[in-house]
Amino acid sequence: MENRPKCDIVEVLKNPRNGKFCCVVAPMVRYSRLEFRSLTRKYNVDICFTPMTIANSFIRSEICRQKEFSTNIEDSPVIAQFAANCTTDFLYATQMIQNYVDGVDLNCGCPQSWAKEDGYGCYLLKKSEVIEEMMKTIRRNTPADFSVSIKIRLLSKDIKSTIELCRQLQALNVSFITVHGRTPSEKSTSEHPVDYKAIAEIKKSLDIPVIFNGDVMSLDDANKFYEHTKCNGFMSARGLLANPALFAGYKETPLSCIQDWIDIHHQQQERMTFQNFHHHLVFMMENMLTKPDRIQFNDFTKKQQCLEFLEEKFSLTPKPINYPQNTLCVYDDSNYKQLISTEEFWTNTYSAESSHGQFFLSKLHKVKTKNDDYLEFMDNCSDLFS
Ligand SMILES: Cc1cc2nc3c(=O)[nH]c(=O)nc-3n(C[C@H](O)[C@H](O)[C@H](O)COP(=O)(O)O)c2cc1C
Predict the structure, then answer these.
(1) What distances in angstroms separate CA 299 from CA 186, 238, 365, 371, 377, one per listed residue?
(2) Catalytic: which of 22, 23, 64, 110?
(3) Which residue in 7, 8, 43, 23 sits closest to 256, CA to CA?
(4) Is 51 helix (H, G, I), strand (E, B) or coil?
(5) Does the beta carbon of 121 lie inside 6 Å of ligand 1?
(6) Mutate which of 54, 217, 238 to test ligand 1's pocket (most atoms within 8 Å of Cβ)?
(7) Ligand 1 midpoint to CA 26 (Å)
């Protein structure tokens, strides 16, 4: 991508626009895609992460590259997050995406069981020698102003081991570290609030920038945690799904945000699936709709139904906007095909998921209708978000 402006993420983190900290969109599988990143950038977001992509699928499959990643000239600063369990996969994926992003990030935070089986996510934290080799290799093979970062969880309640790991990472010239202030066994619920004191200790013991993650549901939360930790950035996932305008100080999703979303969709109809368009609206409108309306909205299966509903309820209709052209990650992978000659490796096993995904499913409630069928709807998201 030749005319893409380059951005030094470390400089951005060290010189935040608001004079205190950078506002960051978390990596979110299925959700932190280009269109959602564009939406949040209208509301004071400084840095966005792409959804996590498995590096091994990304390098093997052109379909994966085209489905899982797109960007445009305004999508900056942006960091591509990968899950990788070996240096070669992470290096090749980085080389393929390098001209389209400002940095790459290694997911060392995912606690799910599939990650455990394949040694991805937080299970990698147990193998510091593998992380070390990955980070050294990527750093050696990328320009100094290209950001190479890592997203971790706390290793345990005893903060010493996490500090030690972070210091090792700093010594490897990692650009910055994102810390989700929970251990792998702690779920994102109010039973296990984010351990901001642990993140404050980590921040104090490092010279490189630290991004705080966990329970940032409002700008007030970010400000409060900033006072305790002085972190360089504040990353939100669930909070931004519920209210993409939170970093602009809105307490709840403003109608302008729904308008922006349908405008973006209007320009990107071919690229955006119904699911992506619909799920974001469901999350954003949770507090705006009555229960019967939520049930009705949740049941929609066509974009047109959503648009008609929004027109009737809120008088919103999509309007044309200037939206930059999409750029896909085009890469001639023939070199790699020579380097890795095992046919098995190149057999394309990637398939774009069509199911709803855990996060969405976890929020669905079933109600019995008069006809004895079950109807699914979203409710009490704010409970699950807390
Ligand atoms: C729908 C969803 C998808 C997520 N996908 C990713 C991901 O791709 N990579 C990652 O490192 N973390 C992922 N996470 C975890 C978040 O980035 C974040 O660490 C976690 O939700 C805690 O932040 P929060 O309290 O702001 O939600 C995901 C979380 C959610 C809710």
Answers:
(1) 32, 22, 12, 16, 7
(2) 110
(3) 43
(4) coil
(5) no
(6) 238
(7) 6
Domain-by-domain residue ranges, the chain? 9-248, 255-322+353-358
Closest residue by Cα to atom 29, ligand 1, is 28
What is the homologous superfamily of the domain 9-248 according to CATH? Answer: Aldolase class I (3.20.20.70)
Q: Which of 291, 285, 292 is nearest to 310 (CA)?
A: 285
Q: State the pLDDT at residue 345.
A: 57
Q: Which backbone phi and psi does 99 adopt, to 5 degrees?
A: -80, -5
Q: pLDDT tens digits, residue range 92-119?
A: 999 999 999 999 999 998 888 778 778 8
- Give dist(CA 27, CA 204) in Å, integer: 25
For residue 17 the two structure tokens come to 């626009």
Q: What are phi and psi of 17, to 5 degrees?
A: -60, -35
Amino acid of residue 275: Q
Q: Structure pTM?
A: 0.91
C-beta of 28 in contact with ligand 1 (< 6 A): yes
What residues form DSSP beta bridges with 151?
A: 107, 178
Q: Is the CB of 237 under 6 A from ligand 1?
A: yes
The answer to whether 93 and 58 have CB atoms below 8 angstroms apart is yes
CB of 33 within 6 A of ligand 1: the answer is: no
| pLDDT computed for residue 379 by the predictor | 39
**Catalytic residue status for 110:** yes
Residue 375 tokens, joined: 């109807």
CB atoms within 10 A of CB 231: 26
